[in-house]
Write a structure and sequence with these properties.
The complex is a heterodimer of chains A (254) and B (409).
Chain A (H helix, E strand, L loop, with lengths): L1 E7 L2 E3 L21 E3 L1 H15 L3 E10 L3 H11 L3 E6 L3 H4 L3 H15 L3 E5 L10 H9 L3 E11 L2 E8 L2 E8 L2 E5 L11 H7 L4 E4 L32 H10 L4
Parallel strand pairs in A: 1-4, 1-6, 4-5, 5-11, 6-10, 7-10
Antiparallel strand pairs in A: 2-3, 7-8, 8-9
Helix pairs in contact in A: 2-6, 4-5
Chain B lengths: L1 H11 L5 H10 L22 H18 L3 H7 L4 H10 L18 H11 L6 H12 L2 H6 L2 H13 L4 E4 L15 E5 L2 E12 L6 E7 L9 E7 L5 E6 L10 E12 L10 H7 L1 H29 L1 E2 L2 E2 L4 H29 L5 H25 L10 H14 L3
Parallel strand pairs in B: 1-4
Antiparallel strand pairs in B: 2-3, 3-7, 4-5, 6-7, 8-9
Helix pairs in contact in B: 1-2, 3-6, 6-11, 7-11, 11-12, 11-13, 11-14, 12-13, 13-14
Classes of the chains: A alpha/beta (254), B alpha+beta (409).
Chain lengths: 254, 409
């Protein structure tokens, strides 16, 4: 039985919140806005806890990079069944500029430090939709990757991963240590039960800084402008196909 | 002060949770030094800790996924699937928050029950929270406190786990407010009590497995002659007469029940014979605070939906919301909600540190009932014609809320 699964969890603006762009167009409004765990990260945590319950792993460690509030997200992971948490403290301007490359460097360093055998992440975050962290982490560690996983099973010493791809489903077998990213249909995350929420209080969260892991979080990207998508204009209804073709010609589309 | 109020109002338009509004008010005091981050963790709440908020978030998820999508259907059908929903809630630990650990509860203090009650107010109807409240905080507290171990194993444990549905049998056709004058009799014969009589307004009565029954067990004076009995409802002689067709709380099935020579073992009496009335009275503080907590969230929700509706609905060339009379009234209502919340939290804080809060709890309940009526009436008005339809939350709230003021405890 391998020792450790590392699960990355990201604190993002809650999916139900209406996003507003800041008046200075440097980003979106986050002050006072409801945040919660990225839905794909929830699926990742659920999968890790399931693997532990199947006795394939001994310990699930939840990791989050961010300011003090990231600890809330780690606590949610603990309430779902993770054993302990690591909070990588990044705040202020560094946090605003934090992206997949820096996070993957951090995760790679942690994976080595904690001697993890498996890293599970959500396939992407719903705020930036990057879909990069898992892949970059695997590359930095030179580990195999099973991305967009919709089913994960142990096959002897290897992991059998069913991936959701454009053409359908692809099944691969990869050796551990490996990186997985969770897709929507991998599982249905459990509700954090009240007993587990109370137990989570006693579980440990250690805080580290990126510097302690030898990671430089300075960004090579600069956000120039953030804008809302254009307002959707009203459409026009037509009666027949000929009308439609006529209108498209008029508009110069064909 | 006016700038703070306007700032809070402006922010409040985008927010659903009041605890985050509280954060905003503090932010205006510490404006210079703190970085531009959400300050939700740094604020001290009067009674809630991180665990309370985690509890609320988890319960909210259950409500959003397992309950709210089906509420419209259940309101129409006049019933919600009690066994299914209670099992989901029980498995997550939400039915036994302040009940003993030995019987599946969590042994937490009443502030956690209040947190649950507040969060249940996010359900889009009144009937289901009411039924849950009966299960967790009306039919079971006396049993948890005074029942024998055997009785607790048979009735309390499965109720906390959500395996058995409970109901409360106190009110009768001839006795509602005047609990002391109930007529249902339980006459002792050997090792059994023989029960005759009937109960009215039994929430979840058509689905319940057992009833916490208050009956007269002797000829002593009215406050000393009643006992609480755990009555399985599948016993011969129990007749669930009818499901009552009600104005509001429609997803909660309410039954009229009759007892015709129903035999129940004497050991099913909770605690001491003759103490039933006192036991039931003891839990009124908790029942009242629970009801207040529940309706607070619902009131907030109705105000927020009214704000959203009136913001996009135009009359006389501008949004209804921007007409001063409307805007002022909604601000007043939100103020009253906050005042009531303060009273609730103060009473809860005093209660969990061991004080008797009967007076404060009763005041809170009185205010809640009155405010809910005024609020639903005012908000309904601002919805115009739409408010009169059954498709909107505000009219459902208007119908259901009447119950809290006049007809409960």
């Amino acid at each position: 039985m391998s020792a450790r699964v590392l699960v990355g969890v990201k604190r993002v603006i809650d999916y139900a919140v209406k996003i507003r762009v800041k008046p200075d167009h440097t980003g979106v409004v986050t002050d006072g806005v409801k945040h919660s765990m990225n839905p794909f990260c929830e699926i990742a945590v659920e999968e890790a806890v399931k693997l532990k319950e199947k006795k394939l792993f001994k310990e699930v460690v939840a990791v989050s990079c961010g300011p003090q509030q990231a600890q809330e997200t780690i606590r949610t992971a603990l309430a779902m069944g993770a054993d302990r948490g690591i909070h990588v403290e990044v705040s202020g301007k560094d946090y605003e500029a934090l992206g997949p490359l820096q996070v993957s460097k951090i995760l790679a360093a942690l994976a080595k430090k904690e001697e993890a055998n498996l890293i599970i992440l959500g396939k992407q975050a719903i705020d930036d939709d990057c879909n990069q962290t898992g892949q970059m982490t695997a590359a930095l560690l030179d580990w195999p990757q099973g991305t967009f996983a919709s089913e994960v099973t142990m096959d002897g010493e290897k992991l059998k991963v069913v991936r959701e791809i454009d053409g359908g489903l692809e099944t691969i077998k990869i050796k551990m240590p490996a990186v997985l990213t969770a897709d929507l249909r991998l599982n249905t995350p459990r509700y954090a039960t009240l007993p587990n929420i109370m137990k989570a209080k006693k579980k440990k969260i250690t805080t580290v800084k990126p510097g302690d892991l030898g990671v430089d979080v300075s960004s090579r990207l600069e956000v120039l402008n953030v804008e809302e998508p254009p307002q959707r204009q009203a459409g026009v209804k037509v009666e027949t196909v000929d009308d439609l073709v006529g209108k498209l010609r008029e508009a110069g589309k064909i | 002060a006016l700038r703070v109020l306007r700032f809070s109002l402006a922010v409040n338009r985008n927010l659903l949770k009041t605890n985050v509004v509280c954060n905003k008010r503090y932010l205006s005091e510490k404006v210079s030094s703190s970085p531009k981050e959400s300050v939700s963790k740094q604020i001290d709440h009067v009674i809630y800790t991180e665990e309370h908020f985690a509890l609320k978030a988890s319960l909210r998820k259950i409500i959003d996924q397992e309950i709210n999508p089906y509420v419209d259907k259940w309101e129409e059908e006049g019933q919600f699937p009690a066994h299914k929903i209670f099992k989901i809630l029980g498995s997550a630990g939400f039915l036994g928050v302040n009940k003993p650990v030995e019987y599946g509860g969590l042994g937490l203090d009443f502030s956690y029950s209040v947190a649950v009650a507040e969060e249940l107010g996010n359900i889009n109807c009144g009937g289901i929270p009411m039924a849950i409240g009966v299960q967790s905080d009306m039919a079971t507290p006396a049993l948890a406190r005074f029942g024998s171990a055997e009785l607790k194993r048979e009735f309390l444990l499965p109720s906390i786990m959500g395996d058995k549905v409970a109901c409360l049998g106190v009110s009768e056709t001839g006795a509602g407010s005047d609990v002391a004058s109930i007529n249902t009799k339980a006459v002792r014969k050997g090792d059994e009590f023989i029960i005759n009589g009937g109960k009215m307004w039994t929430t979840t009565g058509t689905q319940a497995d057992w009833m916490c029954l208050l009956a007269n067990t002797s000829n002593d004076p009215p406050h000393k002659n009643k006992s609480l009995i755990c009555l399985p409802l599948n016993l011969p002689g129990v007749h669930i007469a009818r499901k009552i067709d009600k104005m509001g709380m429609r997803s909660s099935d309410t039954a009229e029940v009759f007892f015709d020579d129903v035999r129940v073992p004497c050991k099913n009496v909770i605690g001491e014979v003759g103490m039933g009335f006192m036991y039931q009275m003891l839990q009124f503080q908790e029942e009242r605070l629970w009801g207040v907590a529940n309706i607070l969230t619902m009131m907030e929700k109705v105000v927020q939906e009214t704000i959203n509706y009136t913001r996009q609905r135009k009359i006389f060339n501008q949004a209804v919301l921007y007409h001063q009379a409307v805007h002022f009234r909604l601000a007043e209502l939100q103020t009253e909600i906050e005042l009531l919340r303060s009273l609730l939290h103060r009473a809860t804080a005093l209660y969990i540190s061991g004080n008797d809060v009967t007076k404060l709890a009763s005041m809170a309940k009185l205010k809640a009932g009155r405010l809910a009526r005024e609020l639903s009436d005012s908000c309904l008005q601002y919805w115009g014609g739409m408010g009169f339809t059954n498709d909107v939350l505000v009219s459902r709230f208007y119908r259901s809320v009447r119950l809290l003021h006049s007809n409960l405890n």
